[in-house]
Design a protein that fits this description.
By secondary structure, the chain is α/β, with parallel strands linked by helices. The protein is built from 5 helices and 5 strands. The radius of gyration is 14 Å and the shape is globular. InterPro entries: Bact_response_regulator (IPR050595), CheY-like_superfamily (IPR011006), Sig_transdc_resp-reg_receiver (IPR001789).
Length: 135
Amino acid sequence: MPLEKILHIEDDESIRVIVDMALVDISGYTLVSCASGQDAINQVEQYTPNLILLDAMMPGMDGLQTLIELRKKSSYQQIPVVFMTARIQQSEQQEYLDAGAVAVIEKPFDPMSLGNQLATIYQTFITAADNHSSE
């Protein structure tokens, strides 16, 4: 199953605009952008993405709290989550991975390669899931 639909959760409007250009205009994905974790929680009934791109540091509900809330929805339990953060210390990255993220992308990111980067992460996740289910 190819990567087509992405849910992006990011409180910084300028980053949302850049990600929109990178993923929609350059890579051709369908994208729903949310300005907060609560906004994303409110969207889950209307939109089921193939992948979630999630900012780690947001006011109110941060990325980890948002992930916990999204995972409470049955349709969101198996969707791969990629955190995007400027905080790239190994311990913080490990915290995101331990919480269920499949990857962490460092800010600032390269908008020209973001779509390909997410496609690679997604394919790796799908391949691993397929291999795991066939064991």
